[in-house]
Structure formats: C-alpha cells, structure tokens
Amino acid sequence: MAIEPTTDQPRKKIKASNIFVWIILVLVMIGLGGFGVTNFGGGLTSIGKVGDRDIEMNDYARALRQEMDAISAQFGQPITFAQAQAFGLDRQVLQNVITRTALDNEADRIGISAGDATVADEVTAMRAFQGTAGSFDRETYRFTLERNNLTEAQFEAGIRSDVARSILQGAIVGGFTAPQAVVDRLSSWAGERRGFSLLPLTEADLPTPIAAPTDADLQAFYDANIDRFTRPEAKRITYVSLLPEALAPTMEVDEQALRDLYDARIDEFMIPEKRLVERLVYPTDAEAQAAKARLDAGEVTFDALVAERGLTLDDIDLGDVAQSDLGPAGEAVFALTEPGVAGPVQSDLGPALFRMNAILSAQETTFEEAQESLGAELRTDAARRAIGARIDEIDDLLASGAELEEVAQDAGMDLATIDYIATEIPEGITAYPDFREAADVLAEGDFPEVIQLDEGGLVALRLDEVVPPTPIPLADAREDVLAGWQAEATAKALADRAAAIKTEVDGGAALGGFGIVSVTREITRDGFVEGAPSTLLPALFAMAEGEVQVIQGEGFTGLVRLDTIQAAETEGDEAAALRDTIELRARQALAQDAFTLFTNALSNEAGIQIDQTALNAVHAQMN
Questions:
Q1: Cα(33)–Cα(26) distance, rounded to whole angstroms?
Q2: Where are the alpha helices (DSSP H) in 357-453?
Q3: How many other CB atoms are found less than 10 A from the CB of residue 488?
Q4: Which residues pair with 193 in a beta bridge?
Q5: What is the rounded distance in angstroms from the CA atom of residue 536 to the CA atom of residue 532?
Q6: Residue 259 phi, psi (nearest 5)
Q7: Which residue segments constitute the domains of the chain, with CATH numbers given?
Q8: How far is residue 476's CA from residue 565's CA, in Å, rounded to a whole number?
Q9: How far apart are CA 610 and CA 268, in angstroms?
Q10: Hey, which bits of 468-585 come out as E strands?
Q11: Tell me: the pLDDT tens digits for 106-158?
C-alpha cells in the first residue's frame, strides 16, 4: 500500500455509500471490464483543472457511464449519449466532478489527508475484496483492481481523497440549526386544516339536455383537436409467420396417444366427492367428548369451542378434502349428509371434532368428453415440434436472399403487413413479446432473420417504411370525435350551471338546495378527496372562510364552500412529529445551500479550466 502521513484532525467514519468513484467502480461496474474509458488516445488524462488539481478524464467517464446506466435501468432500455445530453446528464455529471475536484484541491491546500490505518480499514471492510472465507483476500483485491484497469496506488489515492473530502464536507454542513421562526411558520402552514362542503354536478343537474351535434359541429371539433385524432408515427412492417395455432389443425393425432394422456392425467378428470372441513383437536378423548356434549346440548357454539382452545378458524381449516385425506375420521365425516359436526374421532394429531361445512360433488369427465381438449393439446405440441424442425430450412431461404414474399410461398408461411406502434395495446401478432422486441429495434436495411417465439412459432420481419403521424379520417374516427364533443359540451354546460348556482349561493341561497352536498369536517393540505380533481385542495387552502368557488377538472365539475379554518395543533405527538420533520428538512436545506455556495466559491477562487477536446474525446466513447 502507498503510505502517507496521517493528520491528527478528527474525522467522521466514512460510509461505503460515500466512497469516491473508485468504490462505485468496484461495487457497481465489476464485469464491465473497463468498457474502454482508459483509452482516449493522444495521451489525454484529464479534462481540465480546478486550481492545482486535475479533473481526471477517467473519473468523469466512469461517473457519466454510471448515470447513463442508472437512467437506462429506469427506462427499461439503454439510452444513447444524445439522449443523455438532451436530459442534461453530461452537464450535471461535469458539475459534480468539478465540485469534487474543488473539494480535493481545498483539502490539499489546507493539509487534510488520511493515514494508512484509515485506508487499510476502508479497503479491508469492502465486500468486493472478501474471499471465500468472508474476510479480506489480497489476491481478490489485486484481481478486482486489475480487471478494472486500476493500480493499488490509484485506488488507495481515491480513498484518501474521499476521506479528506468527507472531513471537509462534514465541517461545512455540520452544526446548522433551523431558525425557530421558520419552523413555527412552516408548522403552522403545514398543520392547518379546512372544513368544507362539496356539491358535485352531473349532466342530470343541467336544466336542459345537451342537443345532439350537427355534422358541422363534429367537423369543427375534429379540426380543432386534430392532434387527438392523429395516429402516431408507425413502422410499416411486412412479416412472415408460422404459428402453432395455425398449423395445429393439420396435425394428425393417434387415438392411443390420446387415451394414454387421459390415463396419465386421470386425477384431473375423475375428481372424487369432497367436503369442506375444519378440525378441532383436543389433548384427550375425555375433553373432546365433553366438548361435543356441550355442543349437542346447545351450551356452546363450535366457533366458541375454537376460541376456548386459543385458535382461529384459519388454524383449524383443512380446506376441501376427500375421504381418503382424513384417514380414520373420513368415514364419520363423509357419513354426514348436510353441514354439521362429527366426532370425536381419532386423527393424526389426536381426538378431534370435525365440522363439515359443505359437500362438493364428485366431478367425472369421460374420455369422450375430454377428447377434444386433449386432442388440441397434442396437436399444438406436434405443431411446435414440426415448426422447430423447420428453423434451418427457413433460415437458409432467408440467407439465400429470398424476399419474404418468396419465403411465404416456398415455406407455406403466412404473409402480412402491419403498421406497428409500440405504445398501442398489443393484439394479434404484436401480442407476442418476442415480436414486439424485434419490431422495436427493427431499422431500415436490416436483413430479415428467423425469430423463434416463446410459444413455439417463427417470424421474420422487414421494415418497409416509417409512416409519419397521419390524421385519422373523420369517418373512421367519428365515434371518438362524438365522445370528445359530448364531453367538451357537457363540461361547458356544467361550468355555466355551476357559475349560475354560485351567483345564487352568493346571494343567500343554500348550497344544499341544488343537490346532495358532502361535508368534510377537516382535511390537511396533503389530504385526498375521492373523485375530486387535484386542484380542489390548493384552491380550498387559498379561499376565505365562507367563500364559494367553482371547481372543475377532467370529468368533474362542482362547487366547494370553505366552512371552517382550523389552526395547526401545537400539542400532542402528531404536532411534535410534524415540527421535527420540518426542522430536519429546513436544517438539511440550509446545509445543502451552504455547501453549494462554499463549493462554488472554492471553484471560482481556484479557477476552473476545461479542455473541450478532452471532453469531446470522452463523449465520443459514449456513443
């Protein structure tokens, strides 16, 4: 290990989550094999400087790749560097690296460092370097660093920097307290409650029904909302397919094979009579007899007996059982012709009472009745095998340059063309996940290849063209246009009705005179009102007591009246918990602001130099 003098300055124990990008590299990026970030050509090693400290090129590249991988995981598919730039990811990562380097530069200036013992503790505690015995293994340490193009000196220098940065950061953000006035004000604001009355309006509340639209009305609505009636960009895909369900009807099935399958699964077709049964076990036969006597005399219910034993009905439930499942008790239980209690009889666990709750009749399916469904299964299985045997044949046709139309004719496959839109609800061939996956990545010029579906089918795809967004003709979209027009006309009519009711209520009329009013005694700012739009509570907390306001949202129109304003509670556990939460968040916000100001000042004072050529070299590696 590289050794440096230690400092007597106290520090906080660094957490694994705070380790510099070297640690992130080991724990998160093992297996990526360095992904080429160490070879940018031209001998470049940094993308700039903050003061006297270089901004390492590899540090920036690794941090950028890590963020891109994290975003890709969220989206469920890899993102390109162009997309990362559109999200501002490169600028965010660069700023983070500049901030870290500025802290490193300042730590160097004022002499903060970490000693050998500290570095050793951090390294040996890392799970990535533990061997099969569960302790630090020197060979594992060396091999892991080697796989990621790191030397021990580089890695340990990174740990020293991170420890020093942690000490400096702790000194900056520690000791902040939130001003009492701020905590009081925010607690009062967050803890306030409102009581209100809500009158929802529906089409039934309109004085006159909405007239049917004319063709001109629909045309105008269609033209004004053409985006709603435009098909998104689509991939026009021609494909050939050979699916088990299409081939299965042509497959021959041997009757003996059907009978063998029926016999092998006879338990599915010959289900014996069963009972829904509960079993209450007693320590001795005498106790079981006494309980049955009390039950027969009407002194106690079976449920009460269960409770006396300290059990619940779930504890004693056996579910649906056949007579053979109950052993010696089976005969007594199945002798009951209606729900009741049998016993006490001996069970595997001792003397017990059995309550029978229902009789499930035997179900018998003859071979003739099962023959059709069994035949369909065997034909489908045979079709899958036949299709699997033809993969090489179809692959050879495609490899020879045959067009899909020729493949369909020569191989007896189905040929079709669809406009594929990834966001549409899958149906038909697009219901196959493997088809959608292939269609998503299909690009112009791609050579058609055989794709085997999980269900046993085969497809091959060709992209004919990308169809730009296209308006759906009014005649085809008429039903949706009519629904949209009616929704808009209804919302406008209800808004006019709500405004008229508000005028009358403001003039002294009772809100309840216009319909059924729901009353909520109290609600906080983060509450929830079922069926109401999200705009209700913000509007409510901005109203004066007694004020009436029209509330409208998607599918909702109504009037709300603010009945009461209730100040925040100042006593009790909930009030104390709220104040503690607000105080903590305020303290964290102050500390974060102070840290941002400090690091910005450090960077400006030390001076920032960015090598755009080196930065472009990193970005080129990301494509």
A1: 11
A2: 367-388, 391-399, 404-411, 433-441
A3: 13
A4: 566
A5: 7
A6: -65, -40
A7: 16-175+604-622 (1.10.4030.10), 193-224+476-566 (no CATH), 234-247+381-468 (3.10.50), 273-361 (3.10.50.40)
A8: 53
A9: 73
A10: 470-471, 518-523, 548-553, 556-566
A11: 888 888 877 888 888 888 888 888 877 778 888 888 888 888 778 888 888 88
CA–CA distance, 399 with 415 (Å, rounded to integer):
18
Task: Please give the mean pLDDT across all residues of the chain.
Answer: 85
Q: Is the peptide bond before 344 cis (omega within 30 degrees of 0)?
A: yes
Nearest CA to 76 out of 373, 433, 415 is that of 433
* pLDDT score at 8: 39
**Rounded mean pLDDT, 315-327:** 87
Segment 428-448, tens digit of pLDDT: 899 999 999 999 999 888 889
Q: What backbone torsions phi and psi does residue 57 show, to the nearest 5 degrees? A: -60, -45
Q: What pLDDT is stored for residue 623 in this prediction?
A: 65
Chain-centroid distance of CA 359 in Å reads 43
- The closest of 556, 546, 524 to 537, measured between CA atoms, is 524
The one-letter amino acid at 521: R
Quickly state the pLDDT bin for 2 (edges 50, 70, 90).
Answer: very low
Long-range own/partner contacts, residues 417-425 (CB < 8 A, 24 or more apart): 417/236, 417/237, 417/238, 417/239, 417/464, 418/236, 418/237, 418/239, 419/231, 419/234, 419/235, 419/236, 419/237, 419/467, 420/234, 420/235, 420/236, 420/237, 421/231, 421/232, 421/233, 421/234, 421/235, 423/232
Which range has the worst mean pLDDT, 58-62, 500-504, 520-524? 58-62
Q: Residue type for 73, please?
A: A
Compute the distance between CA of residue 464 and CA of residue 450 in angstroms, rounded to an integer. 17
Q: Taking a C-beta distance cutoff of 8 angstroms, is the pair 235, 468 a contact?
A: no
Other residues' Cβ atoms within 10 Å of the Cβ of residue 149: 16
Q: Which two tokens stand for residue 567?
A: 């100040």
Token pair belonging to 17: 């989550």
Q: Record the tokens describing residue 78, joined without a space.
A: 């890899």
Two structure tokens written together for 354: 């059995």
Q: 36: part of which helix (H) or strand (E)?
A: none
Residue 494 has pLDDT above 90, yes or no: yes
Nearest to 25 by CA among 66, 69, 60: 66
DSSP 449: -
| Beta pairing, strands 46-50 & 414-420 | unpaired
Q: Residue 499 corresponds to which tokens in the numbers above?
A: 């405004």
| Residue whose entry in the numeric block shows the structure tokens 């046709």 | 397
DSSP 77: S
Q: What is the pLDDT of residues 405-420, one digit of tens each?
A: 999 998 889 999 999 9
What digits encode the pLDDT tens for the residues 581-608? 888 888 888 888 888 888 888 888 888 8
Query: 360: which strand partners?
Result: 274
Region of residue 232 (left: phi > 0; alpha: psi -120 to 50; beta: else): beta
Enclosing H/E stretch for 354: strand 350-360
Decide: helix, strand or coil at residue 523.
strand
pLDDT at 37 over 80: no
Cβ–Cβ < 8 Å for 122, 22: no
* Beta bridge pairs of residue 46: 56
> Both tokens of residue 155?
């890695």
Please state the rounded mean pLDDT for residues 220-226.
Answer: 95
Encoding tokens for residue 453?
């579906």
Residue bearing tokens 């009305």: 217
Q: Most confidently modeled of 69-83, 180-194, 490-504?
A: 490-504
